[in-house]
């Protein structure tokens, strides 16, 4: 996927981003996961519209076809602070809402999105990327580990607003 490009989402891209998030939430639900279940009910705890305004949401295109999206927070959200503790260094980016277009699962597109997120971290001279992942989702945990993310911690029985879940914390170091 050498001709892939990453661009910052604009407000006119909001519906595209919401569609990608909804499709991924539905895909997760079809696989038996409750992860992102709020999106299926129209809830947006990460306020993607405001994140787009802050220039923290990215779209990834391959041959002019939208293949996915992700968000990179430079400042911690309350969620990130709960998981990682307070960090005012602004030296890392927090990866959230990585989502693939319908039909892109199983095509290494997720790897491409992570590569593009790493590219943004390098360009912004950040020391790395942090993310959290539901501990029970073995597929996603293996996916992050296979993409150079190291598990650096866990949070048990976190109240995510829907239920209590365990989470794994991952870090990719920009070397």
Describe the 3D structure.
The protein is of the alpha+beta class. It has a single domain (4-126), classed as Gcn5-related N-acetyltransferase (GNAT) (Aminopeptidase, 3-Layer(aba) Sandwich). Helices cover 33% and strands 32% of the residues. The chain contains six helices and seven strands, in the order βαααββαβαβαββ. It has a seven-stranded mixed beta sheet with strand order 1-2-3-4-5-7-6, with helices on both faces. A hairpin with a 2-residue loop joins strand 2 (57-62) and strand 3.
Describe the global form. Answer: globular
CATH-assigned fold name = Aminopeptidase
Query: Distance between the terminal alpha carbons, to the nearest Å?
Result: 23 Å
Low-confidence stretches: none
**Protein structure class:** alpha+beta
Oligomer class? single chain
Q: Can you summarize the main beta sheet?
A: 7 strands, mixed
Q: Name the CATH superfamily assignment.
A: Gcn5-related N-acetyltransferase (GNAT)
Overall helicity: 25-40%
Instruction: Please tell me the CATH architecture by its name.
Output: 3-Layer(aba) Sandwich
Name the helix and strand elements from N-terminus to C-terminus, one letter apiece. EHHHEEHEHEHEE
Number of strands: 7
Rg calc:
15 Å
Question: How are the strands of the biggest sheet laid out side by side?
Answer: 1-2-3-4-5-7-6
The first-level CATH class name: Alpha Beta
Compact overview of the structure:
This protein has 175 residues and is an alpha+beta fold.
């Amino acid at each position: 996927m050498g001709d892939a490009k990453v661009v910052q989402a604009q407000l006119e891209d909001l519906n595209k981003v919401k569609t990608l998030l909804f499709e991924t939430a539905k895909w997760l639900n079809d696989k038996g996961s409750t992860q992102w279940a709020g999106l299926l009910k129209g809830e947006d705890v990460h306020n993607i519209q405001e994140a787009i305004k802050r220039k923290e949401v990215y779209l990834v295109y391959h041959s002019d076809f939208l293949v996915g999206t992700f968000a990179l927070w430079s400042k911690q959200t309350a969620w990130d602070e709960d998981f990682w503790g307070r960090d005012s260094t602004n030296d890392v980016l927090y990866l959230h809402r990585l989502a693939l277009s319908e039909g892109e699962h199983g095509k290494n597109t997720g790897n491409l999105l992570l590569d593009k997120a790493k590219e943004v971290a390098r360009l912004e001279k950040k020391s790395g990327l942090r993310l959290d992942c539901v501990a029970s989702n073995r597929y996603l945990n293996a996916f992050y580990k296979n993409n150079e993310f190291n598990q650096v911690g866990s949070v048990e029985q976190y109240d995510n607003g829907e239920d209590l879940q365990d989470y794994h914390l991952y870090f990719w170091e920009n070397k």
